[in-house]
Amino acid sequence: MDNKDLLVIEKRVVTRFLDMFIRFGLILALASFCFTVFSPFLNMMLWALILAVTLYPLHQRLAKRFGGRQGKASTVLVVLGLVIFVGPMVLMVTSLGESASAMITHLSDAHMAVPTPSEKIASIPLVGQKAYDLWLKASVDLPGLISAYHKQIIEMLKMVLGVMANMGGGMLGLVLSYIVAGVFMAYGSAGAVSAQRIFTRITDEKKGPAMTKLCTGTIRAVAQGVIGVALIQALLVGVIIAVAGIPAAGIFFIFALILGIAQVPVLLATAPAIALLWMVGDHGTVMNIVFTVLLIVAGMVDNVLKPMLLGRGVDAPMPVVLIGALGGMAANGILGMFIGATLLSIGYLIFMNWVNEGLANTAREIDAQ
Length: 369
Description:
Blueprint: H1 3-38, H2 42-65, H3 70-108, H4 119-122, H5 128-140, H6 142-148, H7 150-186, H8 188-202, H9 207-244, H10 249-261, H11 267-280, H12 285-300, H13 302-309, H14 318-368
C-alpha cells in the first residue's frame, strides 16, 4: 500500500469522523432545544405520569362499569380526585398563606398587643422556659423585641414568603397534573405499549418488559403505600385541626405529610396540635375531648390504611424515599416532594437491579470455569 492509498484512507476516516461529530452536535443541539422548551412542564408531566400509572387499575375498573368508555372513566376519576383530595390540599396550603399574611400584618402593626403567656408554657420540657421568657418580653416590650431581632425576622419572613409562593405554584401544578393524568389514563393501553418499546430499545427484548414491570410496580408501591397513605393521613389531620380552630392548620398538614412519608408516627404532629387545642381552644371540655380523640385516631390511621393500599412491600429503603421527598421538596416545592420520592426509589431499584445482575453474571462465569 503506497502513500497515495494511505492519504485516501486518511481522508475517508477524517470525513467519517467529521460527519459523525456534526451529526452528534446537531442531535445534541436539538435535544437541548427540546429540553429547554419542555422543562417548564417537566415536573407537571412527571407527576401526571406517576398518577396515571398509580390510578390506572382503578381507572380500568371504572371503565368496565361504563361499558369500556375510557374517556368517561377518566373524567369521573379526575372530578372525584379534585373534590376529595386536591380541594382539601389547596385549602391547607391556602391556610399557610393566610397565616403568613396575618403574621406580617400583625408584625407591622405598631399598636399590636401580645397577651401575657400562661404559666403552663414554662412547664413544657426543654423549650418551655425559653419560650415563656420570649413570649413575656413580647407582651411587655414588643417594639424592643422586634428591633433586637429585626434582621432575623426579615430573613424569616423572606423565607416564609418564598415557601408560600413555591407551594402556591406547586398546588397549581398538582391540579394540572391530575387533569393531564386523566388524559394519560384515557390512552393507557397505547402508553403501556410505548413504554415497553422504549425500555426494549434502551436495553433489549428480554430486559425491556422486566424493566417496565419494575418501574410500574415501584411507582404504584411508593405512590400508594407511602405517598398515598401519608397524604390521606395528613389531610385528615389538617381538616380536623382546621375544624377545631387550631392555628396554622397548613403547617401541621405539611409536618404530618413529611412524617408520614418518612414512616415516622404522625402522632408527633398531632400531639402539639392537641396541646394547642387545650391551651387556646374555646369549644368547651366536651368538644376538646372529641377533637383530641379524633386527632389521636388520625395520627394512627396509617396502621389501617397501609394494609389496604400497600399491595406489596416497597423494595426501596425508607431513607431513600425520605431523601427523595425532602430533596424534591427543597428543589421544587410540594410537587417535588411526591416526584422526588418516586423517582429516587425507581433509580435506586434500577441501579441495584443492575448491580445484582452483574454479580449473577460473574457467579455464572466462575461456575462455568
